[in-house]
Each structure stands twice: as C-alpha cells, then as structure tokens.
Specification:
This protein has a 4-stranded antiparallel β-sheet with strand order 2-3-1-4. The chain has a 3-stranded antiparallel β-sheet with strand order 5-6-7, with no helix packed on it. The chain is an alpha+beta fold. It has a single domain, classed as Alpha-Beta Plaits, CATH 3.30.70. 32% of the residues lie in helices and 28% in strands. Strand 2 and strand 3 form a beta hairpin. GO terms for molecular function: endopeptidase inhibitor activity. Keywords: Signal. One of its GO terms (biological process) is vacuole fusion, non-autophagic.
Length: 106
C-alpha cells in the first residue's frame, strides 16, 4: 500500500511520461539514377534512427523497401533538395493490374 501511495505521489508531482510508438507503414523509397550512395545511406540511417527498419535493398533500381513512421518519411523528404526521393506505399499488384492491400482487391 505504501509503495502504491509513493508511486501515485511521484506520478502526480512529476507527471506521467508516456512513450508513444508511432505507427509504421510499408513503403518503397526510390531515388533518381544519378543520386549518390551517400544520399541513400543518409536516408536509411534517418529511417533507422526514427525506429524504422529497412526490409529490402534493391539492386536494379536506386532504392529500398522499409517500415517507417510518417515522421521519419517527412524527415527523409527534407534531407536533400537536389535528389528528391519518390516514396510510395508498398503494396501487391496482381498480374491483371488489381491493387491488393491486406488481402482485398481494390
């Protein structure tokens, strides 16, 4: 009981800090062919710093797939004015061109 009261007093006096985890979405980030490796590396580091993960690095195009928060993606957009990334939601497209999200056809 004393521990509960002490905890309650500390929360009331100092406030309760809640750590919110930003929701993440699956995206594909691509850059123009002339973008240097340093730009892609900086982008990946920014996403990871914000708690995101790089899920796949492409070889044929200058880009990668990631799970990232909206905040991280906004930061990525602001990193370079010369090499602007194209950020698209990652989704499955069927052979007949239908877009599939979460198992449903749109």
């Amino acid at each position: 009981m004393k521990l509960f009261l002490l905890s309650y007093l500390l929360i009331c006096l100092f406030g309760l800090t809640v750590i919110a985890v930003a929701p993440q979405k699956a995206v594909i980030v691509t850059y123009p062919d002339d973008a240097p490796d340093s730009v892609l590396d900086q982008t990946k580091k920014e996403i990871e710093r914000a708690g995101g993960i790089i899920t796949h690095e492409y070889k044929l195009i200058r880009g990668f797939a990631a799970q990232a928060s909206t905040r991280a993606l906004e930061a990525v957009q602001a990193l370079s004015s010369q090499y602007l990334p194209l950020i698209e939601e990652d989704s499955i497209v069927s052979i007949d061109g239908d877009l599939i999200r979460g198992g449903h056809t749109n």
